[in-house]
Design goal:
The chain is mostly helical. It has six helices and no strands. It is elongated.
């Protein structure tokens, strides 16, 4: 019967020889074949290193391009910032003159609209909502004026408050 310590020694020796073969795939070959194998291994390693260098160079080119694009964006942002500062410093030159304020509440369109929408001025929530939405609507649709503007305003108020009453 083989003692366990002898079995362990044999396994360790076998494992050592296997790992040595893995580290040097050319070991165990005849001298000339071994030299040829090592030369091939060195050539393969050199090709792999060259490929890694090329990949690193390509990555560096990509990073350089990204940095150039970011720098261009920063330059554009600086220019926009300078332009905005100049506009703030000289607002009359950058903003068109506004026409004088007109009291539209006395126009026939508004009078007619108010008679169609008696909640305006009497229902605080609806009136406040209408005033806030009117400002928003003027910004979003500056082309919408007169009765179409007022109708869009009342439609939004009715839509908003009918949804809350459900």
């Amino acid at each position: 019967m083989i003692k366990p310590s002898v079995v362990a020694l044999l396994l360790a020796t076998f494992a050592g020889s296997v790992s040595a073969q893995q580290a040097d795939p050319c070991s165990g070959l005849a001298a000339s074949a071994s030299d040829q194998c090592r030369a091939n291994q060195q050539k393969l390693q050199l090709e792999q290193l060259q490929q890694q260098v090329q990949q690193q160079q390509e990555r560096q080119r990509q990073l350089d391009e990204q940095q150039r694009q970011i720098q261009q964006q920063l330059d554009n942002m600086r220019l926009q910032n300078e332009t905005l500062r100049a506009q703030v410093a000289h607002p009359s030159a950058s903003q068109p003159a506004r026409p004088p304020a007109t009291d539209y509440s006395k126009t026939p369109e508004v009078k007619s609209w108010r008679s169609d929408n008696p909640w305006f001025g009497s229902d605080y929530a609806k009136t406040e909502f209408a005033v806030r939405y009117a400002k928003q609507l003027q910004q979003e649709r500056p082309d919408l004026v007169g009765r179409p503007f007022l109708d869009a305003l009342s439609a939004k108020v009715n839509e908003n408050f009918s949804a809350k009453n459900r």
